[in-house]
Design brief:
With about 300 residues, the chain is α/β, with parallel strands linked by helices. It is built from 15 helices and eight strands. It is globular and about 50 Å long. The model is unreliable at about 1-10 (pLDDT under 50).
């Protein structure tokens, strides 16, 4: 064990100081079935890491709460998804909130529409969840909403972003009248330029919600292309397609080094940019994503277990 810890500390010597700073405080996403494959999150993640728990349609709430309880017990901030379209009614929402709080001490939530086309019940979007007042009455201290740097055809089926921007203005107004801290956790993208342009446009439009930019962790190229198409990733998909045409790179796993280095440089040059931190989608596995951050983020990426044994 001592040898393992030594190697992890030695690996945490980043060559890019901007990237180290940008990755500090990153968050990561898991699902109950992927969390089951991790023996000890403390051996992978820095202390205090925010861990989102994705709620896929069909996942029993018992499994969601059990995963939240386990990860919270290890000392991490837990943020479960509340997908509006899979929540039957206000009573169901109230039950979920009470269970997360009572069994896992949860006071944070990601509110989003959800990845299905037909709602299961009364809710269609995150704004309706907010309007119930249930999160406010339960004393939730942080509420995140979804962001879409490259648009969302589920919301704007004809292209463009009229409906998306209208929803963001509503959420901005709500953030100004609530005590809960708010931010946008975004869909992943593979090119910094569209992300920066989107962040600049939001700021010009009066949107001030901090952006937690979604980034796909290391994974096989074929895996990422499949997820990117399914999730509606737009202009930056060309980065993957170009890579797929290079035979020398086709068999190598994709790593988010370039896009993160570009975003880190932009953030260093423009500290008032809305992009606040990184949210990691571990599409190639939680351990792989966590180790990549450890190798590139210096002490900011060192796991809780390593920090305590140092």
């Amino acid at each position: 064990m001592a040898l393992l810890n030594f190697r992890r500390r030695e690996a945490a010597r980043p060559a890019n100081a901007n990237l180290e700073a940008f990755l500090d405080g990153y968050s990561i996403e898991v699902m109950p079935r992927t969390a089951e494959k991790v023996d000890d999150f403390r051996a992978l993640l820095p202390q205090g890491t925010r861990v989102y728990i994705a709620h896929i349609d069909g996942t029993p709430i018992d499994e969601m709460v059990a995963t939240a309880r386990r990860i919270a017990a290890d000392g991490f901030d837990v943020m479960p998804h509340f997908p509006a379209r899979i929540i039957k009614d206000a009573a169901t929402l109230a039950d979920w909130i009470a269970r997360y709080q009572g069994e896992a001490g949860v006071t944070q939530a990601l509110l989003l529409g959800g990845g299905i086309s037909t709602p299961h019940g009364a809710f269609d979007n995150s704004m309706q969840l907010i309007e119930t007042g249930l999160f406010d009455r339960a004393g939730f201290t942080r509420l995140h909403v979804a962001g879409h740097p490259e648009g969302n055809r589920d919301i704007d089926p004809n292209g463009g972003d009229r409906a998306v921007m209208e929803a963001l203005r509503w959420k901005q107004a709500f953030s100004e009248r609530t005590d809960a801290k708010m931010a946008m956790a975004t869909q992943f993208a593979f090119d910094a330029a569209p992300i920066v342009a989107w962040a600049d446009r939001l700021k010009a439009e009066g949107i001030a919600l901090p952006i937690h930019i979604g980034i796909a962790g290391p994974a096989k190229l074929q895996t990422l292309i499949k997820f990117a198409i399914a999730c509606g990733v737009g202009p930056s998909l060309k980065v993957l397609q170009k890579r797929a045409m290079d035979v020398t790179k086709l068999v190598l796993p994709y790593e988010p080094t370039d896009v993160l280095a570009d975003l880190a440089a932009h953030k260093a040059a423009h500290p008032d940019c809305l992009i606040e931190q990184v949210h990691m989608f571990p599409l190639g596995g939680i351990k792989t994503a966590a180790q990549w951050v450890t190798d590139h983020a210096g002490q900011s990426g060192v796991s809780a277990a390593v920090s305590q044994s140092a």
